[in-house]
């Protein structure tokens, strides 16, 4: 992974940040999680995806990148060793105080690059508060965006959006194959112990019952012993490279669009 240091906030002097704010009030913020990613992917996948995308998009758009927020809300994965989860209230407070600092310095467009579903509600709470101050908080739901992109590509249009499944594993193989343990990738065996008629769709408890969606708030380990949903065995570096290229193009458009808001 190429490290592009020039536009990271933590690598700037304060006069450099002050100069940047004279021509732009926009900043992109990578946010991730440390959580189970199946038996073949590293716990920090969400962090690495967010930072990887921010680095490249920053180079293309000359947009500042804020320091990564590496911890998220992942409470349903706590049965899997290594998972680190903040409480929702803690995460919301951290995001709020982070944004307050950026706002105080003059940033007004804050774009969160978020690959972790569990962070969404906290970002939404903060975003609505800051809108009342005249700021604009945006969140790009990275994995759902990858799924939409995959549907438009012949080689990936049948790939499912599942936890640590085909799409996530392909992206990881394209970013850092040395950290992907493909011999341990296997199709998930899933069930919901409370009922054989309720089919789990993801690890958060989102499920299908007779054609409609319901939530069952059980731990992820009750649904999947391996920690993943779906089948990652068809993943490939080639798929991941195409998905990453298209995602970078999309995020470049998002950043340029939001910068025009100024």
Task: Please give a structural write-up.
- With about 260 residues, the chain is an alpha/beta fold.
- It folds into 2 domains: about 10-155 and about 245-260, Creatininase (Rossmann fold, 3-Layer(aba) Sandwich), CATH 3.40.50.10310; about 190-225, no CATH class.
- It is about 40% helix and about 10% strand.
- It is built from 8 helices and 7 strands; from the N terminus they run αβαβαβαβααβββαα.
- It has helices at about 15-20, 45-60, 90-105, 120-130, 140-150, 165-175, 220-225, 235-260; strands at about 25-30, 65, 110-115, 135-140, 200, 205-210, 210-215.
- Strands 2-1-3-4 form a 4-stranded parallel beta sheet, sandwiched between helices. It has a 3-stranded antiparallel beta sheet with strand order 5-6-7, with no helix packed on it.
- Strand 1, helix 2 and strand 2 form a beta-alpha-beta unit.
- Helix 5 packs across helix 8 and helix 6 crosses helix 8.
- The protein is globular, with a radius of gyration of 19 Å.
- The relative contact order is 0.17.
- The mean pLDDT is about 95.
């Amino acid at each position: 992974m190429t490290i592009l240091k020039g536009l990271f906030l933590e690598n700037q002097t304060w006069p450099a940040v002050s100069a940047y704010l004279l021509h732009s009030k926009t900043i992109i913020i990578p946010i991730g999680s440390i959580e189970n990613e199946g038996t073949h992917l590293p716990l920090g996948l969400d962090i690495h995806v967010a930072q990887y995308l921010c680095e490249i998009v920053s180079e293309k758009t000359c947009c500042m990148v804020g320091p990564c927020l590496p911890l998220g809300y992942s409470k349903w994965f706590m049965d899997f060793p290594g998972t680190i989860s903040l409480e929702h209230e803690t995460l919301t407070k951290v995001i709020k105080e982070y944004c307050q600092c950026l706002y105080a310095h003059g940033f007004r467009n804050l774009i969160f690059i978020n690959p972790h579903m569990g962070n969404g509600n906290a970002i939404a709470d903060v975003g609505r508060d800051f809108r009342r101050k005249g700021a604009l908080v945006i969140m790009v739901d990275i994995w759902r965006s990858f799924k939409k992109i995959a549907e438009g590509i012949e080689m990936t249009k049948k790939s499912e959006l599942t936890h640590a499944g085909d799409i996530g594993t392909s992206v990881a193989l394209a970013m850092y194959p040395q950290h992907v343990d493909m011999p341990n990738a296997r199709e998930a065996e899933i069930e919901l112990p409370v009922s054989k008629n309720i089919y789990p769709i993801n690890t958060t408890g989102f499920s299908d019952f007779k054609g409609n969606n319901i939530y069952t708030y059980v731990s992820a380990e009750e649904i999947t012993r391996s920690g993943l949903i779906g089948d990652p065995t068809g993943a490939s570096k080639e798929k991941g490279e195409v998905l990453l290229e298209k995602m970078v193009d999309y995020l470049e458009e998002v950043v340029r669009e939001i910068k025009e808001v100024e």
